[in-house]
Specification:
The protein is globular. The protein contains 8 helices and 7 strands. 43% of the residues lie in helices and 13% in strands. The N and C termini lie far apart (61 Å). It has a single domain, classed as NAD(P)-binding Rossmann-like Domain (Rossmann fold). Helix 5 links the parallel strand 5 (139-143) and strand 6. By secondary structure, the protein is of the alpha/beta class. Helix 4 (107-135) packs parallel to helix 5 (157-177).
């Protein structure tokens, strides 16, 4: 006896044109969901969506959205309803990570990162709320980071602040939306092989790989799988939680902890 095909859901993936966001959009599409992915550039968003639609056979649409503009975010929510009949899942993934030393940061630098990474995500949830409530089983999954909530990295203090701020929002939102059957959770990726990470250079990549106990950088599919789980029915009793996906990167207290253990060492 064959099982019935899983019902198509309407999914929004912000920042879905590249990197982790594109991986998330592709997985939902391959699993038969209708996806609206966004990026700052409308033409590129549509091109990526068309490619994913052809590759997966799913309904995938692209939309240009600047998360610094509340009106654009409202338009995104309305477009998802128009195209796909509502919103079941919001993957608030979009984010930027320009590096700059603290003493060189300008108010504009701080505003840009907070506006996109923190404020933009909050406004996305607010804009999608009516549709998520109507769905009766809405799912919100934020893409945060280990940087800020768990670790720090020199030159990314403003980025870390934005990602830690997401988790403060997550906990309050989870409580507020629980009566409507909406869950709110987050994934915390470690270092993942994306276009943005590649731009930091081979030396950076080698150093990051050496710090990961599993011996490799994460792939976008690793993060997408975690997001898909948190958006699933199986995760329906999980809310206000974070899932770290980092290959064990945050476990060792130093690089020495990654060395093979020496018999009897460290015993008093």
């Amino acid at each position: 006896m064959t099982s019935a095909r899983r019902q198509e859901r309407s999914v929004i993936v912000t920042g879905g044109t590249r990197g982790i966001g594109r991986g998330i959009a592709e997985l939902f599409a391959r699993r038969g969901d209708a996806v609206l992915l966004t990026g700052r550039d409308e033409e590129n968003a549509r091109a990526v969506a068309d490619g994913l639609s052809r590759a997966t056979g799913a309904r995938v649409a692209g939309l240009g959205v600047d998360l610094r503009e509340p009106e654009a975010i409202e338009r995104m929510a309305a477009e998802a309803g128009r195209l796909h009949g509502g919103i079941d899942v919001l993957c608030a993934n979009a984010g930027i990570f320009p590096g700059k030393p603290l003493r060189e940061l300008t108010p504009g630098d701080v505003d840009e990162v907070l506006d996109v990474n923190l404020r933009g995500g909050i406004l996305c949830v607010r804009a999608c709320l009516p549709a998520l409530e109507r769905a009766g089983r809405g799912r919100v999954v934020l893409t945060s980071s280990i940087t800020g909530p768990v670790t720090g990295y020199a030159g990314w203090s403003h980025y870390g602040a934005s990602k830690a701020g997401q988790l403060g929002f997550l906990r309050g939102a989870a409580l507020e939306l629980a009566p409507y059957g909406i869950t709110v959770n987050a994934v915390l990726p470690g270092n993942v092989r994306t276009e943005g990470l590649a731009e930091l250079g081979e030396e950076y990549l080698r150093g990051m790989t050496a710090a990961i106990p599993l011996g490799r950088l994460g792939e976008t599919s690793d993060i997408a799988a975690a997001v898909f789980f948190l958006a699933s029915g199986e995760a329906g009793f999980i809310t206000g939680q974070t899932l770290t996906v980092d290959g064990g990167q945050t476990l060792p207290e130093s690089l020495d902890a990654l060395a093979p253990p020496v018999s009897g060492a460290g015993q008093g």
